[in-house]
Design goal:
Elements: E1 2-6, E2 10-12, E3 20-21, E4 25-29, E5 32-37, H1 41-46, E6 49-52, E7 57-60, E8 62-67, E9 74-75, E10 80-81, H2 83-88, E11 92-97, H3 110-125, E12 133-135, E13 138-140, H4 147-155, E14 160-163, H5 175-183, E15 187-190, H6 205-211, E16 215-216, H7 230-237, E17 241-245, H8 250-262, E18 269-272, H9 285-295, H10 301-307, H11 310-316, E19 331-335, H12 345-351, E20 356-362, E21 365-369, E22 383-387
Parallel strand pairs: 1-6, 2-7, 8-11, 11-12, 13-14, 14-15, 15-16, 16-17, 17-18
Antiparallel strand pairs: 1-4, 2-3, 4-5, 6-22, 7-19, 9-10, 19-20, 20-21
Helix pairs in contact: 3-4, 6-7, 9-10
């Protein structure tokens, strides 16, 4: 499907070093962005669908780097159906599994945790709720796993592993398992901070520096943060990615944000929701984090959007998160919400207002246009300028 968005006022690139892309249009074809700039009349006519943005702001679709998926679009923790599709209506176009730890009766033996990861990965390879990309399947590190287990999981396509919920006597015991997973080519995430559920353990700076994972999940606490004194050590003595999550300690999140920027480590700072958990289902969790980190700090909205998009894409090595030719065509349109004192989406974020999400595209396909079901309405109005597929792509009405 060939699609385009035209009449864009501002294009947020997802790259915090070069936060804006030049042009007023985005052309997409076969799931990829093919042009960012201004499209010709010939390119316009060749499209199956063209959306007039009416001067709104385009940004990469948000990437939630910690989502507690199980199977299908269902969360056992909150007994909620359809939460992933609802997250898409919060501007999240990609979700990355925090491991399938909440699957009822989930296995803890080595063969079982590998089988669970493979099953989840292959299930979501064939299932895209509402059009969302879901990277599922993470090996939960448990005693008894061997290099052969990790290699077999990797052969089956699994590329994530998770430390923090295994039946180890001490978090220090995770280190050889982290190394085996990394040797198999996996990105290893680790629970950080106080214990959150039964079978989890508090994990602090000493443990992180010992095991050297790739990503410190909810470094600001999930929901309990590790001691303040550990943050400069992790930032300055390691290359571990620093994930700030919505379901954590906001004071600690702001402290970590400032420390990372001062240490020239912002590339390692990423955002997530860490939901659904005890904190709940939060379709606007990523937007809420972007808004809070921007309005409560001195840093720009476009920089915070990069932590929710391009930084996540780079850390997890996925081909989305940027408005750039060759990247996955996952794009959202943002605007100042109706009634806000701000005039643009970026000004609204800095002011502390949630921006309106007026459209979402994944793989270049419009998943909804006009407004999302979960955000306030936009100040401006999108308009379908060209359409040959006989579908209006409206979001549908919200029902209780």
């Amino acid at each position: 499907m060939k699609t385009a968005i035209v009449n864009i006022k501002t294009i947020v690139s997802g790259d915090w070093r070069k936060p804006f892309a030049k042009g007023d249009s985005i052309l997409m074809n076969n799931g990829k962005i093919t042009k960012v700039g201004t499209i010709s009349a010939k390119e316009f006519e060749s499209c199956d669908f063209v959306l007039d943005a009416d001067g709104m702001t385009a940004a990469p679709g948000l990437i939630d780097s910690q989502v507690h998926v199980a199977f299908a679009d269902y969360t056992p923790r909150q007994r909620t159906i359809g939460f992933l599709e609802s997250y898409l209506h919060g501007g999240i176009t990609t979700s990355i599994s925090a491991s399938e730890v909440h699957v009822p009766g989930r296995p803890s033996d080595p063969d079982g945790v590998v089988a669970l990861a493979v099953a989840a990965k292959k299930s979501f390879d064939n299932y895209s709720p509402g059009g969302m990309h879901v990277h599922a399947g993470a090996v939960i590190l448990e005693p008894g796993l061997t290099q052969k287990h990790f290699d077999e999981a990797a052969r089956q396509g699994v590329w994530l592993a998770k430390a923090g919920f295994g039946k180890f006597k001490s978090p220090f015991d995770y280190k050889p398992y982290v190394k085996m997973a990394q040797k198999a080519g996996m990105i290893v995430n680790v629970h950080t901070g106080g214990a959150s559920i039964p079978d989890s353990s508090p994990i602090t700076g000493d443990h992180l520096l010992h095991m050297q994972p790739d990503v410190s999940f909810h470094i600001n606490g999930g929901p309990v943060a590790m001691p303040d004194a550990d943050f400069p050590r992790i930032i300055n003595e390691s290359k571990i990615a620093l994930q700030i999550c919505q379901a954590g300690n906001i004071r600690t999140a702001l402290m970590c944000l400032d420390m990372a920027i001062e240490a020239d480590a912002f590339d390692r700072l990423i955002f997530a929701t860490d939901t659904p958990t005890g904190t709940g289902v939060m379709p606007l969790g990523m937007i809420k984090t972007v808004v809070e980190m921007a309005c409560l700090s001195k840093h720009s909205p476009e920089m915070m959007l990069a932590a929710a998009t391009g930084n996540n894409a780079n850390v997890y090595k996925i081909n989305t998160g940027f408005i750039k030719r060759g990247r996955a065509a996952d794009v959202i349109l943002l605007d100042a919400p109706l009634g806000s004192s701000a005039k643009t989406a970026l000004d609204a974020i800095k002011h502390g207002d949630y921006p309106a999400v007026a459209a979402a595209f994944t793989d270049g396909i419009p998943r909804y246009v006009g407004r999302s079901r979960n955000t306030p309405p936009s100040t401006r109005q999108t308009r379908i300028a060209h359409n040959t597929v006989m579908q209006d792509f409206g979001p549908g009405r919200h029902t209780v």
